[in-house]
Protein backbone atom coordinates (compact mmCIF):
# COMPACT_ATOMS: atom_id res chain seq x y z
CA UNK A 1 0.00 0.00 0.00
CA UNK A 2 2.69 2.43 1.06
CA UNK A 3 4.62 1.59 -2.10
CA UNK A 4 1.71 2.44 -4.33
CA UNK A 5 1.01 5.70 -2.52
CA UNK A 6 4.70 6.60 -2.72
CA UNK A 7 4.79 5.96 -6.45
CA UNK A 8 1.64 8.03 -6.98
CA UNK A 9 3.15 10.88 -5.03
CA UNK A 10 6.33 10.67 -7.08
CA UNK A 11 4.36 10.81 -10.34
CA UNK A 12 2.40 13.84 -9.13
CA UNK A 13 5.59 15.56 -8.08
CA UNK A 14 7.16 14.82 -11.45
CA UNK A 15 4.13 16.18 -13.29
CA UNK A 16 4.22 19.37 -11.19
CA UNK A 17 7.95 19.78 -11.80
CA UNK A 18 7.48 19.23 -15.55
CA UNK A 19 4.66 21.76 -15.60
CA UNK A 20 6.82 24.26 -13.72
CA UNK A 21 9.78 23.88 -16.05
CA UNK A 22 7.47 24.04 -19.10
CA UNK A 23 5.79 27.27 -18.04
CA UNK A 24 9.20 28.88 -17.80
CA UNK A 25 10.53 28.11 -21.25
CA UNK A 26 9.94 27.24 -24.86
CA UNK A 27 10.44 23.61 -25.77
CA UNK A 28 10.13 21.38 -28.85
CA UNK A 29 7.95 18.45 -27.80
CA UNK A 30 7.87 16.59 -31.09
CA UNK A 31 9.67 16.84 -34.42
CA UNK A 32 7.95 15.07 -37.29
CA UNK A 33 10.25 14.62 -40.27
CA UNK A 34 9.74 11.39 -42.23
CA UNK A 35 12.94 9.34 -42.62
CA UNK A 36 12.13 8.75 -46.26
CA UNK A 37 9.78 10.25 -48.78
CA UNK A 38 9.19 8.40 -52.05
CA UNK A 39 8.38 10.34 -55.21
CA UNK A 40 6.05 8.00 -57.04
CA UNK A 41 6.21 8.22 -60.81
CA UNK A 42 2.97 9.00 -62.64
CA UNK A 43 1.47 10.38 -59.45
CA UNK A 44 0.89 13.95 -58.41
CA UNK A 45 3.14 13.97 -55.33
CA UNK A 46 1.56 14.41 -51.91
CA UNK A 47 2.89 17.47 -50.16
CA UNK A 48 5.77 16.73 -47.85
CA UNK A 49 4.54 17.80 -44.42
CA UNK A 50 6.96 18.53 -41.60
CA UNK A 51 5.83 19.38 -38.11
CA UNK A 52 7.57 20.92 -35.15
CA UNK A 53 5.36 20.81 -32.06
CA UNK A 54 6.21 23.44 -29.50
CA UNK A 55 5.24 24.08 -25.90
CA UNK A 56 5.58 27.63 -24.73
CA UNK A 57 5.15 29.19 -21.32
CA UNK A 58 2.45 31.87 -20.99
CA UNK A 59 4.92 34.51 -19.87
CA UNK A 60 7.41 33.93 -22.71
CA UNK A 61 7.92 36.79 -25.12
CA UNK A 62 9.68 37.30 -28.43
CA UNK A 63 8.75 33.91 -29.86
CA UNK A 64 10.40 32.96 -33.17
CA UNK A 65 10.24 29.57 -34.90
CA UNK A 66 12.56 28.70 -37.77
CA UNK A 67 13.00 25.76 -40.09
CA UNK A 68 16.45 25.24 -41.58
CA UNK A 69 17.57 22.93 -44.36
CA UNK A 70 21.23 21.94 -44.10
CA UNK A 71 21.65 24.93 -41.78
CA UNK A 72 20.09 27.44 -44.22
CA UNK A 73 16.86 29.18 -43.21
CA UNK A 74 13.85 28.16 -45.28
CA UNK A 75 10.97 29.32 -43.09
CA UNK A 76 10.27 31.62 -40.19
CA UNK A 77 7.22 32.21 -38.01
CA UNK A 78 6.74 35.19 -35.72
CA UNK A 79 3.46 36.22 -34.08
CA UNK A 80 3.06 39.56 -35.88
CA UNK A 81 3.46 38.29 -39.47
CA UNK A 82 2.87 34.52 -39.06
CA UNK A 83 4.81 32.20 -41.36
CA UNK A 84 6.85 33.05 -44.41
CA UNK A 85 9.18 31.02 -46.61
CA UNK A 86 12.65 32.09 -47.70
CA UNK A 87 15.79 30.82 -49.38
CA UNK A 88 15.77 28.12 -52.02
CA UNK A 89 12.43 26.67 -50.92
CA UNK A 90 10.69 30.05 -51.06
CA UNK A 91 8.32 29.04 -53.84
CA UNK A 92 7.97 25.48 -52.61
CA UNK A 93 6.68 26.00 -49.07
CA UNK A 94 2.97 26.47 -48.72
CA UNK A 95 2.50 28.70 -45.67
CA UNK A 96 -1.22 29.34 -46.00
CA UNK A 97 -2.74 26.02 -44.99
CA UNK A 98 -1.62 25.52 -41.45
CA UNK A 99 -0.19 28.66 -39.93
CA UNK A 100 -3.57 30.33 -39.65
CA UNK A 101 -4.75 27.54 -37.39
CA UNK A 102 -2.18 28.33 -34.75
CA UNK A 103 0.36 25.60 -35.57
CA UNK A 104 3.41 27.69 -36.35
CA UNK A 105 5.67 24.66 -36.80
CA UNK A 106 3.80 22.92 -39.63
CA UNK A 107 5.17 23.41 -43.13
CA UNK A 108 4.07 21.78 -46.34
CA UNK A 109 6.48 21.43 -49.26
CA UNK A 110 4.88 21.22 -52.68
CA UNK A 111 6.38 19.04 -55.42
CA UNK A 112 9.45 17.93 -53.48
CA UNK A 113 12.58 17.19 -55.48
CA UNK A 114 15.42 14.71 -54.85
CA UNK A 115 17.71 17.55 -53.77
CA UNK A 116 15.52 18.24 -50.74
CA UNK A 117 17.27 15.28 -49.15
CA UNK A 118 19.15 16.53 -46.12
CA UNK A 119 19.03 17.70 -42.55
CA UNK A 120 15.95 19.57 -41.37
CA UNK A 121 16.23 21.59 -38.18
CA UNK A 122 13.51 23.27 -36.18
CA UNK A 123 14.80 26.08 -33.96
CA UNK A 124 12.62 28.00 -31.50
CA UNK A 125 13.48 30.88 -29.27
CA UNK A 126 12.02 33.45 -26.92
CA UNK A 127 13.82 36.20 -25.05
CA UNK A 128 14.45 33.73 -22.23
CA UNK A 129 15.21 30.40 -23.85
CA UNK A 130 15.91 28.41 -27.02
CA UNK A 131 15.47 24.87 -28.26
CA UNK A 132 16.53 23.07 -31.42
CA UNK A 133 16.07 19.63 -32.98
CA UNK A 134 17.21 18.09 -36.27
CA UNK A 135 16.32 15.05 -38.35
CA UNK A 136 17.45 13.71 -41.71
CA UNK A 137 15.08 13.19 -44.59
CA UNK A 138 15.93 10.98 -47.57
CA UNK A 139 13.99 11.52 -50.78
CA UNK A 140 13.69 8.40 -52.92
CA UNK A 141 13.13 8.54 -56.68
CA UNK A 142 12.06 5.09 -57.95
CA UNK A 143 13.47 3.74 -61.22
CA UNK A 144 12.03 4.66 -64.62
CA UNK A 145 13.23 1.31 -65.95
CA UNK A 146 14.86 -1.85 -64.61
CA UNK A 147 15.87 -4.62 -66.98
CA UNK A 148 17.77 -7.88 -67.04
CA UNK A 149 18.90 -9.75 -70.15
CA UNK A 150 20.83 -12.98 -70.62
CA UNK A 151 21.98 -13.90 -74.14
CA UNK A 152 24.20 -16.53 -75.62
CA UNK A 153 27.39 -14.93 -76.94
CA UNK A 154 28.20 -15.17 -80.65
CA UNK A 155 30.59 -18.08 -80.09
CA UNK A 156 28.01 -19.90 -77.90
CA UNK A 157 30.74 -20.46 -75.30
CA UNK A 158 29.42 -17.83 -72.89
CA UNK A 159 26.24 -16.25 -71.69
CA UNK A 160 26.26 -12.45 -71.60
CA UNK A 161 24.27 -10.92 -68.78
CA UNK A 162 23.27 -7.27 -68.68
CA UNK A 163 21.30 -5.60 -65.91
CA UNK A 164 20.40 -1.90 -65.80
CA UNK A 165 18.46 0.44 -63.56
CA UNK A 166 17.63 3.96 -64.70
CA UNK A 167 16.93 7.39 -63.19
CA UNK A 168 16.94 6.69 -59.46
CA UNK A 169 17.95 8.61 -56.36
CA UNK A 170 20.01 8.05 -54.22
CA UNK A 171 22.82 6.04 -55.79
CA UNK A 172 21.93 2.39 -56.53
CA UNK A 173 23.99 -0.74 -55.98
CA UNK A 174 23.31 -3.61 -58.39
CA UNK A 175 24.20 -7.25 -57.98
CA UNK A 176 23.79 -10.21 -60.30
CA UNK A 177 23.38 -13.80 -59.15
CA UNK A 178 22.92 -17.15 -60.79
CA UNK A 179 21.87 -20.09 -58.66
CA UNK A 180 23.31 -18.94 -55.38
CA UNK A 181 26.52 -17.36 -56.69
CA UNK A 182 26.95 -13.60 -56.58
CA UNK A 183 29.00 -12.58 -59.59
CA UNK A 184 31.88 -10.27 -58.72
CA UNK A 185 33.67 -10.07 -62.05
CA UNK A 186 31.22 -7.55 -63.43
CA UNK A 187 31.73 -4.40 -65.43
CA UNK A 188 29.86 -1.56 -63.77
CA UNK A 189 28.95 1.78 -65.25
CA UNK A 190 27.41 4.54 -63.14
CA UNK A 191 26.07 7.82 -64.57
CA UNK A 192 24.42 10.83 -63.02
CA UNK A 193 22.27 12.79 -65.45
CA UNK A 194 22.09 16.63 -65.42
CA UNK A 195 18.95 16.52 -63.28
CA UNK A 196 20.86 14.53 -60.63
CA UNK A 197 19.36 11.05 -61.05
CA UNK A 198 21.53 7.94 -61.25
CA UNK A 199 21.60 5.15 -63.80
CA UNK A 200 23.69 2.02 -63.41
CA UNK A 201 24.48 -0.86 -65.76
CA UNK A 202 26.37 -4.05 -64.97
CA UNK A 203 27.58 -6.53 -67.54
CA UNK A 204 29.07 -9.91 -66.97
CA UNK A 205 29.85 -13.06 -68.92
CA UNK A 206 29.28 -16.55 -67.57
CA UNK A 207 30.93 -19.52 -69.32
CA UNK A 208 28.16 -21.63 -70.86
CA UNK A 209 29.48 -24.81 -69.28
CA UNK A 210 28.94 -23.33 -65.79
CA UNK A 211 25.24 -22.87 -66.43
CA UNK A 212 22.81 -25.70 -66.43
CA UNK A 213 19.70 -25.25 -68.47
CA UNK A 214 17.40 -23.98 -67.12
CA UNK A 215 19.03 -21.75 -64.48
CA UNK A 216 17.52 -18.69 -62.83
CA UNK A 217 19.60 -15.52 -63.14
CA UNK A 218 18.70 -12.74 -60.75
CA UNK A 219 19.56 -9.06 -60.61
CA UNK A 220 18.77 -6.90 -57.57
CA UNK A 221 19.44 -3.32 -56.60
CA UNK A 222 19.22 -1.32 -53.43
CA UNK A 223 19.26 2.46 -53.16
CA UNK A 224 22.16 3.07 -50.80
CA UNK A 225 21.13 4.14 -47.30
CA UNK A 226 17.48 3.18 -47.82
CA UNK A 227 15.36 0.05 -47.71
CA UNK A 228 14.26 0.53 -51.31
CA UNK A 229 15.10 -2.63 -53.22
CA UNK A 230 13.86 -4.45 -56.33
CA UNK A 231 14.76 -7.69 -58.08
CA UNK A 232 14.28 -9.22 -61.49
CA UNK A 233 14.70 -12.80 -62.51
CA UNK A 234 15.16 -14.40 -65.89
CA UNK A 235 15.42 -18.10 -66.58
CA UNK A 236 18.37 -19.03 -68.73
CA UNK A 237 17.04 -21.78 -70.95
CA UNK A 238 19.06 -23.27 -73.75
CA UNK A 239 16.55 -25.03 -76.02
CA UNK A 240 19.33 -26.34 -78.25
CA UNK A 241 20.83 -28.54 -75.53
CA UNK A 242 17.47 -30.03 -74.55
CA UNK A 243 16.63 -30.81 -78.14
CA UNK A 244 20.05 -32.36 -78.81
CA UNK A 245 19.44 -34.73 -75.95
CA UNK A 246 16.20 -35.78 -77.59
CA UNK A 247 18.00 -36.39 -80.90
CA UNK A 248 15.74 -34.00 -82.68
CA UNK A 249 17.01 -32.34 -85.80
CA UNK A 250 14.94 -29.20 -85.61
CA UNK A 251 17.28 -26.23 -85.49
CA UNK A 252 16.28 -24.08 -82.60
CA UNK A 253 18.95 -21.75 -81.37
CA UNK A 254 18.06 -20.53 -77.93
CA UNK A 255 15.33 -18.88 -76.04
CA UNK A 256 15.17 -17.10 -72.79
CA UNK A 257 12.00 -16.96 -70.82
CA UNK A 258 11.80 -13.72 -68.91
CA UNK A 259 9.96 -13.51 -65.72
CA UNK A 260 9.75 -10.15 -64.00
CA UNK A 261 9.32 -10.24 -60.29
CA UNK A 262 8.90 -6.97 -58.54
CA UNK A 263 9.29 -6.98 -54.84
C1 LIG B 1 24.75 22.17 -39.24
O1 LIG B 1 25.48 22.75 -38.17
C2 LIG B 1 25.76 21.87 -37.10
C3 LIG B 1 26.40 22.67 -35.97
O2 LIG B 1 27.23 23.67 -36.47
C4 LIG B 1 26.66 20.75 -37.62
O3 LIG B 1 26.95 19.84 -36.59
C5 LIG B 1 25.95 20.03 -38.73
O4 LIG B 1 26.80 19.03 -39.30
C6 LIG B 1 25.53 21.01 -39.84
N1 LIG B 1 24.72 20.26 -40.79
C7 LIG B 1 24.90 20.34 -42.12
C8 LIG B 1 24.00 19.50 -42.95
O5 LIG B 1 25.75 21.06 -42.64
C1 LIG C 1 17.08 21.38 -56.81
O1 LIG C 1 16.72 21.02 -58.13
C2 LIG C 1 15.85 21.95 -58.75
C3 LIG C 1 15.44 21.38 -60.09
O2 LIG C 1 16.45 20.63 -60.69
C4 LIG C 1 16.57 23.30 -58.87
O3 LIG C 1 15.72 24.24 -59.46
C5 LIG C 1 16.98 23.76 -57.47
O4 LIG C 1 17.73 24.95 -57.55
C6 LIG C 1 17.81 22.70 -56.77
N1 LIG C 1 18.06 23.12 -55.42
C7 LIG C 1 19.25 23.00 -54.83
C8 LIG C 1 19.36 23.46 -53.43
O5 LIG C 1 20.21 22.52 -55.42
C1 LIG D 1 14.80 0.05 -42.87
O1 LIG D 1 13.98 -0.93 -42.24
C2 LIG D 1 14.29 -1.17 -40.89
C3 LIG D 1 13.44 -2.32 -40.40
O2 LIG D 1 12.11 -2.16 -40.79
C4 LIG D 1 14.06 0.12 -40.09
O3 LIG D 1 14.40 -0.09 -38.74
C5 LIG D 1 14.93 1.22 -40.66
O4 LIG D 1 14.65 2.42 -39.99
C6 LIG D 1 14.68 1.39 -42.13
N1 LIG D 1 15.64 2.33 -42.70
C7 LIG D 1 15.30 3.39 -43.42
C8 LIG D 1 16.41 4.25 -43.91
O5 LIG D 1 14.14 3.64 -43.69
TrEMBL record:
InterPro entries noted in UniProt: Ig-like_dom, Ig-like_dom_sf, Ig-like_fold
Keyword vocabulary terms for this entry: Signal
Residues making up the signal peptide according to the UniProt record: 1-25
Ranges where the Ig-like domain occurs: 34-138
Keyword Signal applies: yes
Family annotation (PANTHER family): BEAT PROTEIN, GH04238P-RELATED
Name of protein: Uncharacterized protein LOC108053136
Species assigned in the record: Drosophila rhopaloa
Lineage of the species this protein comes from: Eukaryota, Metazoa, Ecdysozoa, Arthropoda, Hexapoda
Amino acid sequence: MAGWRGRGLCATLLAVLTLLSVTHSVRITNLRVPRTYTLLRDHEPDPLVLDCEVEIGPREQGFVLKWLFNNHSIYQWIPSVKGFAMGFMKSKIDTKIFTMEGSPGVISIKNPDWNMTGEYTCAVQTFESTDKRSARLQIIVPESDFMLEARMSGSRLDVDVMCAVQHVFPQPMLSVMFDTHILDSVLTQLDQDPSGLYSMTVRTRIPRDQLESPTPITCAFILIGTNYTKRRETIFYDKASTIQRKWTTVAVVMSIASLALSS
